[in-house]
Design brief:
This protein has 359 residues and is α/β, with parallel strands linked by helices. It has twelve helices and 14 strands. 41% of the residues lie in helices and 20% in strands. Bound molecules: 1,4-dihydronicotinamide adenine dinucleotide and magnesium ion. It comes from Halopseudomonas phragmitis.
């Protein structure tokens, strides 16, 4: 049995998760996966139910699950609560408590969506890059962090950006391993011209590189990387970077592919436990309207089957089904183009289910 914990979350989370679960159930029948699902709350939904964004019992359920599928958390409803209880803190906590330090964020342009990107087709066509983001260290977790009022009455706040050698080494290894099964090309992105943490990052990545002589390693400052991602994104294959830079660059990369609604992700620990979720947030601006793109979450199911369970045929089939649906010209609003048929969240999920059944 494969025990999968479903955490729909907030905003569009429950809408896109319903479609992903439909697809997972069909894949389960078709490929005899032996999947068993359980459900719980995370983020604002958990705050409303348990008074905290991640309840202890939910964390325990996540610990014993073989894999976790997450929608997205957050929203304006919880903007005014104690910052320590905000929905996003629940997400950060589950990532760190489960040791999910390796975040894989592929940015792949489906050829059918070349027109959906705001960049010229020749710049993005054939784009297939992988951003490996460190997920449990750096400035999102660093202590001390504080907000205070100075003696002169001025408000001030600070965060801390720490990285230890072992944290850098383990994420570098994930990235080199990925590079080995792809095109043996890795770019490490940092700000080593300014930050001490980045200088250590660069040093340790160089040390890890000695174990991977076949991989062509380069380094780039994050500001230049942001520019190069838009100027000539196909120069990259695998990118490895820290928590905050990876957060920003992966959102940027998503636009090369047309929409953030297309990008899945995997967050892995040192073994084979993983949490899978779309790269986007809870999209409060479109929540409850039935228009959100469920494909990033559906593609996250595919990543789960591939990375946590080695169910390669089922993972491939889901990706193929998504591609077929795009061939049929079905588009949610975020990827809509001339001559295509605009569909809602449920119709898109139904179309993937139908395509998967017919494969
Ligand atoms: P967002 O990713 O939720 O939305 C950014 C824009 O992309 C919005 O215009 C939204 O409508 C659109 N969008 C996102 N997903 C879409 C989809 N599947 N289909 C169609 N359009 C989509 O980012 P935003 O607005 O900065 O954050 C909203 C909330 O989500 C905040 O509370 C934030 O903290 C939270 N958040 C949660 C994340 C997570 O749970 N992993 C990640 C990022 C943000
Ligand atoms: Mg983000």
């Amino acid at each position: 049995m494969k025990n999968i914990l479903i955490l729909p979350g907030d905003g569009i989370g429950p809408e896109i998760m319903a479609e992903a679960v439909k697809v997972l159930n069909v894949a389960n029948d078709k490929f005899d996966l032996g999947v068993e699902l359980s459900h719980d709350d995370l983020g604002g939904a958990a705050y409303d139910r348990y008074g905290v964004p991640l309840a202890d019992e939910t964390l325990e359920r996540a610990r014993v699950a073989d894999a976790i599928l997450l929608g997205a958390v957050g929203g304006p409803k919880w903007d005014t609560i104690d910052p320590a209880l905000r929905p996003e803190r629940g997400l950060l906590k589950i990532r760190s408590q489960l040791g999910l330090f390796g975040n894989l964020r592929p940015a792949l342009l489906y050829p059918q969506l070349a027109a959906a990107s705001t960049l010229k087709p020749e710049v993005v066509s054939g784009l297939d890059i992988l951003i490996v983001r460190e997920l449990t260290g750096g400035i999102y977790f660093g202590q001390p962090r504080e907000r205070k009022v100075l003696d002169n009455g001025e408000r001030m706040a600070y965060d801390t950006l720490p990285y230890s050698e072992s944290e850098v080494r383990r994420i570098a290894k994930v990235a080199f391993d990925m590079a080995m099964v792809r095109n043996k090309k890795l770019c490490s992105v940092d700000k080593a011209n300014v930050l001490a943490s980045s200088q250590l990052w660069r040093e340790v990545v160089e040390e890890v590189a000695r174990d991977y002589p076949e991989v062509e390693l380069s380094h780039m400052y994050v500001d230049n990387a942001a520019m190069q991602l838009v100027r000539a994104p196909k120069q990259f294959d695998v990118i490895v970077t820290d928590n905050m830079f990876g957060d920003i660059l992966s959102d940027q990369a998503s636009m090369l592919t047309g929409s953030i609604g297309m990008l899945p992700s995997a967050s892995l620990d040192a073994g084979n436990k993983g949490m899978y979720e779309p790269c986007h947030g809870s999209a409060p601006d479109i929540a409850g309207q039935g228009v959100a793109n469920p494909l990033a979450t559906i593609l996250s199911v595919s990543m789960m089957l591939r990375y946590s369970f080695n169910e390669v045929a089922a993972a491939d089939a889901i990706e193929q089904a998504v591609s077929l649906v795009l061939d049929q010209g079905l588009r949610t609003g975020d990827i809509m183009a001339e001559g295509c048929q605009k569909v809602g969240t449920v119709q898109m999920g139904d179309a993937v289910v139908a395509a998967l059944k017919n494969l």
